[in-house]
Amino acid sequence: MAGPEQPKPRRRQPGKRLKEAIFARQAGRCYLSGAPLGSIWDCEWHHIPGLATRPIREDGKDYIPAQLDPDFLFAVSPCHHSESTNGPAVEKKHLLRKDHDKSRAQRTRDLRDSHRAHLKAMSEKKPGQRRPRSSRWPSRPFKRPER
After folding, report:
1. Is 44 helix (H, G, I), strand (E, B) or coil?
2. Helix H or strand E segment including 16
3. What is the pLDDT of residues 64-76, one digit of tens each?
4. Region Disordered: what ranges (predicted)?
5. Alpha carbon distances (Å) from 118 to 53, 111, 113, 121
6. Gap between the Cα atoms of 22 and 88, Å rounded
7. What 3-state DSSP class applies to 35?
8. Residue 74 belongs to what H/E stretch?
9. Does residue 54 contact residue 101 with C-beta atoms inside 8 Å?
10. Cα–Cα distance between 144 and 92 in angstroms, integer?
11. Distance CA 36, CA 125 (A)
């Protein structure tokens, strides 16, 4: 997994041969909707899983799996690609479902940050020492019932 200071790998565009192979594998249809696509120039290329949720190789030059791996790259129509990446276009953002690529990427970043904080706390802890209590609720003394 990449460290917090390691930059993301450079984004690479698929070549014409790769696009043609993926387009032929999908029989010229959108991977998300099944609608026919005009040509390799009329579609967009969608990574599943999204690049932001993939771990980065140790050398920092690519993702795991590689970003141009044909098994994880799909031809989709532009409107379906936008909806899959950003979520559906809705007026009220609180109605937006949370299963699009950007929300998954944010969730992945949050989990990585939480894991790093946990590892840091555990490395600072001395053997046999109890971990510090963290509570969201302030502790308050409650009155004991009288007998």
Report:
1. strand
2. helix 16-25
3. 999 999 999 999 9
4. 79-147
5. 20, 10, 9, 5
6. 26
7. coil
8. strand 73-76
9. no
10. 48
11. 58
Structure tokens at 145: 């019932």
Q: Are 80 and 33 in contact (CB under 8 A)?
A: yes
Token pair, residue 104, equals 């998954």
CA 75 – CA 21 distance, rounded (Å): 10
Give just the sign of the alpha carbon dihedral 20, 44, 57, 60. positive
> 9-53 pLDDT, tens per residue?
999 999 999 999 999 999 999 999 999 999 999 899 999 998 888
> Distance between CA 24 and CA 13 in Å, rounded?
18
Cα–Cα distance, 96 to 89 (Å, whole number): 8
Residue at token pair 């209590």: 133
Tokens 């031809």 belong to: 75
Which helix or strand (DSSP H or E) is residue 47 part of? strand 44-47
